[in-house]
Amino acid sequence: MAIRVQAQPFDAGQEVNAMHAANVGVGAVVAFVGYVRDFNDGREVAGMFLEHYPGMTEKALNKILVQAQQRWPLLRVEVLHRIGALQPGEPIVFVGIASAHRQAAFDACNFVMDYLKTQAPFWKKESTELGPRWVEGRQSDQDAAERW
């Protein structure tokens, strides 16, 4: 299990390859990469700033990953989340799940993302043409997490 919260960019392809290289028993790697969009709710977004509470954020992410490992037979679980100033097109988050079989990897990846969106303490502020604004949680994210 690996959790990284960092300002530096990452290469999702390298992250996926490293997940498989760590264990030849891996039969499936499912990965999700989230990117900064150049729009949100009909507004242009020039950039985003992500804040977190060091220690608390990693603890919340660890709890999510432990829950995933308790539900599915996983060989490796990784979450990499960026913080700081980001521009449209830059990656924000990487969730990688390795398992012997694909369905466990798909389900666990969905679970981790649904809980990350609703349980992890990150705060996002977008820079828009109307000025900065905090991004609020969406009901659809809550609904997705409740299905588990």
Automatic annotation (TrEMBL):
This is Molybdopterin synthase catalytic subunit. It comes from Pseudomonas cremoricolorata. It comes from the Bacteria. Its EC number is 2.8.1.12. Pathway: Cofactor biosynthesis; molybdopterin biosynthesis. Keywords: Molybdenum cofactor biosynthesis, Transferase. GO terms for molecular function: molybdopterin synthase activity. Belongs to the MoaE family. It is an enzyme of class 2 (transferase).
